[in-house]
Amino acid sequence: MRSARLVLLAVAGVALAGCMQTGGPFARDAPPLHKQQFVLPAMLKPGAGRTVVAAQPVAPQPVYAEPMPLAPQPVAVVAEPEPSYALDSGDRLRVVVFGQEGLSASYSVDTSGRITMPLIGAVHARGMTPAGLQQAIAAKLRNGFVREPHVAVEVELYRPFFILGEVTLPGQYPYVPNMTVETAVAIAGGYTPRAFKYKIEISRQVNGLTEKRVVSPNYPVRPGETVHIAERWF
User: Fold this and answer.
1) How many CB atoms neighbour CB 40 within 10 A?
2) Cα dihedral sign for 111, 112, 115, 119?
3) How far apart are CA 97 and CA 152, in angstroms?
4) pTM above 0.85, yes or no
5) Which of 77, 99, 103, 230 is a Cys-bridge partner for 196, taking CB atoms 3.0 to 4.6 Å apart?
6) With 80 as the cut, is the pLDDT of residue 215 above it?
7) pLDDT tens for residues 41-54?
8) Which domains are present in the chain?
9) Confidence tier at 167 by pLDDT (50, 70, 90)
10) CB of 145 within 8 A of CB of 132?
11) Largest distance between two CA atoms of the chain
12) How far is CA 56 from CA 35, 37, 59, 112, in A?
């Protein structure tokens, strides 16, 4: 009996050692969980006995979107304001005094640089802008003639310009808005055969003094200015 018990204990010890080395959830040499193979029962998935390898979870990768190209921004182009027109002798003005029909009329700037209106008499206009002249007229009317005068002044006819030198018909001509040297030459009948087209001079009166400058054919001409086309010598 004693020998039989020793045999049973030896067999049991061998079996227990085998379980600790090859089986059991706490075996030291067991592969990681994500590499273990599992056999699904037939009742859970068709195809009993099929070996399924569990897939490892994949971490989401960040998605980098390329930046959208910026649309070109429009560039605002700002035009330089044209200098205010200065009145002088030869300009004809339309003056309107609202509610005063006897004062609303056309007036010419005389050689002394003034216009003469009923009630208030002479008003200085030379060198003034139309806006400045209407303020001067309103100030005189307010001095004992009209309680609250509203005045508007606009140029009805610009003073003429002059063109001299090597053109077919030099002389004085009515001013045309937005005209250039080429326009002035065309009005005067064009260049003569001896015209030096690369030396064009414009003279103007500035504060009682004559200002001269050499300009190009596309240079603007203003009322009262004198255009001179030089003569070539070869």
Assistant:
1) 14
2) negative
3) 7
4) no
5) 230
6) yes
7) 444 444 444 544 45
8) 92-157 (3.30.1950.10), 161-231 (3.10.560.10)
9) very high
10) no
11) 158
12) 9, 13, 10, 104
Residue with tokens 């049991």: 12
pLDDT one-digit tens code per residue, 197-209: 888 999 988 777 8
- Structural tokens at position 214: 């050499």
How many residues would you count in the chain? 234
